[in-house]
Amino acid sequence: MSLITPRTPPGTMELLPRQQVAFQRMLDTIRRGYERFGFVPVETPVFETVDTLLTKSGGETEKQVYFVQSTGAIQQGNKPELALRFDLTVPLARYVAEHERDLAFPFRRYQIQRVYRGERAQRGRFREFYQCDIDVIGKDSLSAHYDAEIPAVIHHVFTELNFGGFTINVNNRKILLGLLDGLGVADADTRVLVLREIDKLDKIGQDKVRASLLGLGVTEHAADTILSLIAMKGTNAETLAALGALDIETDLFREGVGELTTVIEGLKAFQVPEGTVRINLAIARGLDYYTGTVYETFLNDHPGIGSVCSGGRYENLASHYTKSKLPGVGISIGATRLFYQLMEAGIIKDATPTAQVLVTQMDPALSADYFRMASELRAAGINTEIQLDGGKIAKQMKYADRAGIPVVLLMGSDEQARGTATLKHLVKGEQVEVPLTELAARARALLEG
Amino acid sequence: MSLITPRTPPGTMELLPRQQVAFQRMLDTIRRGYERFGFVPVETPVFETVDTLLTKSGGETEKQVYFVQSTGAIQQGNKPELALRFDLTVPLARYVAEHERDLAFPFRRYQIQRVYRGERAQRGRFREFYQCDIDVIGKDSLSAHYDAEIPAVIHHVFTELNFGGFTINVNNRKILLGLLDGLGVADADTRVLVLREIDKLDKIGQDKVRASLLGLGVTEHAADTILSLIAMKGTNAETLAALGALDIETDLFREGVGELTTVIEGLKAFQVPEGTVRINLAIARGLDYYTGTVYETFLNDHPGIGSVCSGGRYENLASHYTKSKLPGVGISIGATRLFYQLMEAGIIKDATPTAQVLVTQMDPALSADYFRMASELRAAGINTEIQLDGGKIAKQMKYADRAGIPVVLLMGSDEQARGTATLKHLVKGEQVEVPLTELAARARALLEG
Prior knowledge:
Chains A, B: It catalyses: tRNA(His) + L-histidine + ATP = L-histidyl-tRNA(His) + AMP + diphosphate + H(+). With 449 residues, chain A is an alpha+beta fold.
C-alpha cells in the first residue's frame, strides 16, 4: 500500500500536546473572566444556511466564505446550502432573533468558537481561528454604561492572562462623524475616505495624513482641526476637556463626547486604572457596522502584533432577521493569532502536561501497590498516570522526561518494607522519601513548592 | 427590507443559555476525568484534506462526508480539496503520523471536538455532534493492561457525571473469531454475517439468531455452542471459567480469553466495582477496525438510548500515513446525543446561569457603592453581574428571575446608612440583611447553603 503524506491543512494552527495545554489554559482564563462578569455561554453550529450567512451585499465577505456540501448535493449539481461561519456576530444575530422570546434582556453572552475565512495561506494568517466574543444586547435600548463594562471585562481578562502591559484604546465614531459634519465635510464618499486616512495615522504619520486630507478637498482649517484632535496625546481628562472646548456644535458630536465621557467615568467606577484605557481619537474602525464606541487593544511590549481585541457599539444587531430593535456592544479576542504570536515571541512556552505524577513500575511484584497509590493520588485531585507497559525503569523515566511530567513516584521492595515511596521532581532535581500515609500531601507540596 | 427567517441549520443541537451551561459542565466533567488519568489534550482542524480523510475505499463513509470549498474553487469548477472530519480517529491517525517524532509514547491523548456526518435529518439524529475521545497509542507494542485502564477512566467519568447506574460491557473479538475458527466456520463472508447476527442478540433474541445462523450454513453444534456463550449471564469469573472450559484450542481464541482475563483482573487493580463492568460475549462491533477488546456502555435506567460510550483495541492506527506500527486502544463518549437524550428524559435540567449574584441599582445616587460591591464579590470569586440600565427595581428583579440568577443584592439608603445590604435568594425565597464587611462570605454561604 502506498503511503499518504500526513499533513495538517494549510492555514490552521495545530499544536503539540504541551502547547495545546498552554492554549487551553489561555481559553480557560478568558472564559473564567467572562463568567466572572456574568456572561452566559452560547455555542452555535459551525455552519449556517447560506441565506442566513450571506445577507450582506456579498462582495468581500462572500469571497472568503467556505461553502459546505454533501457528496449527494455535489453530484446533483446543487448550489451549496450551508457555509462555515466567518465570525461569531452573524450567528449571534441569528441566534438572538430566533430565540428572542426565550432570552432575558439585556442578553449577555460569551462565545468561544472557531471561525473560518478563505484567506490566502501565509505564515501567521489563519483560515481557521478562535474568536472569544462577549456582547451585551439590549431590547429597544441599552445604556452607555455597558460601553464602560466591556473594557472593564477586558482589563480583568488581560490582567489574568498576564502577558504584560496592555492598552485599551477607546473612541466614539460619533465624535469623528460629528466633527466632519461641523467642519462641512458632507459628501458621503469623501467622509469614508477621510475616516480611512485617519485610521492610518499611527502608520504613516501626521504629514502624510494632512496631505491626503487636503487632496480629498478638505479645507486647511478642517484638516488642522482634525489632526490636532486625532494626534492628541494627553490624559483622558485632558482629551475630554479639549473636545468640550472645541467649537463644534453638531448633535452627533456632542452625543459622542457625552458617551465617551460616560465610558471614561464608568471605568473609574469599575476600578479600571486610568493607564490601561486611553482615549484615542484616531481609531475609526470598520465603517458601516459600529455606530458609537469603538475599542482596540494593544500589548505595550508587542505593538507589532496589532490589535488583539477589538469591538464596539452597534445600533441594531439583527435587522436582517427580526423587526425588534436590538442595540448592542461587544468585543472579540482573536485567540489563535494572539497565542501564535506570543508563542513565536517566546512569551508563551510549553505548559507542563496534564499529568502531574507518573507512577512507575519498578518491581512487577508490587503492581497492586502502584495501582493503589495512583488511585489515592487521583482521589486527592492530583492528575496521575501509571506506567502500565512496565519494562526497564530507565525507559520509564525517559518517558516521563519526554512527556514533561514533573514528578515521578518510585517504590522498590526496600521502600515498600519501610512503608515509604520516593518522589522525584524531574525539573527541580529534588528527591524525597515520604511515608505512604502522607503520599498525596507530600506530592502536592513537591508540585507546588 | 424583507426579513430572513432565522433558523438553526437542521441536524444540529443549539441550546438556550442555561442548557448550554449544563452541557458545558458535562464536557468539563469529562475533560477533568480524562486529565485526572494523565491524558493530554489535542485539537485538530475541523477539516482535513480529502486525501487524508478518504483513505478508505469510499462507499458508506464518503456518502456522509461534507466537502468544503471556497467561492473561488467552486467558480473554477475544482474538485473539493477539504472535507469536514466525520470522527476523531482519522485526524488522530494523521496527527500521530505527522508529529510522531515530537510525541512521547505511549501517547495518551484526549480530544473533545465536534464531528460531521451528512445524516438524513431526523429527530435525535445529528449532523454535527461532539465526540469526547481518549486513546492510548503505543509504538510497536502496547500492553493489554491499557485495555483495562480505558474502562477504569470511563467508570470514573460516569461516576462523576452522576447520571445513575451504568454498565460497561466488555468483550474481545478474538474470542468470537477464534471460536468460529474452532467451530469450522472458515469462509470470510459467512464469518462477517455470523458476527452481524451475534450483534443482534439483544434486539431479536436467541431463537431468531439461532435460525439465522443455521440459515448461513452453520452446523447445529456450532450454533448451539455460539449461543450458549453469547447468551451467558454469569459473573465475570463464571464467564471466564466457562470460556476456559470450552473445547476450543485455536491460538486466537486462547489469546482473546487471555486478554479478557487481563482486563478483568486489571479492573480490580483499578478498584472498579465488579458490577459496573460486565463481560458480554455478544458484543462484536464494527468489523474491520477493532481487533481485540471492545467496549459498549449503557445507562441502566435508559437502555433505549443505546450505547453511550464505545470503543476498543486496534492493531495499527495509522498504516495509511506511516510505516511505524502504532497499536492503540480507545473509547469515545457521544456527548451531544447523550446530553440531548437525557435532557429529553428530564434527567438533565437547565443549570443555574454563570452569574451567581445580580447587584441591582435601587438608588442611582448609590451607584458608586453598587460598583464597589460588585468588584468585591468578583474578587472573592463570585460571578457577579451588575444592572447598568437601572430603572424600576421590579423590572430588575424580573430580569434576575428570567435569567435564573439565584441571588440578588439590594441596597437602599436606609441600609447604606446602617452599613448593610440585603441578599435575597430567589429560588429559596430566603432574605438576609448582612453587614457590608461580611458581604462576600455571606453571599457565598447563601449560594452554597
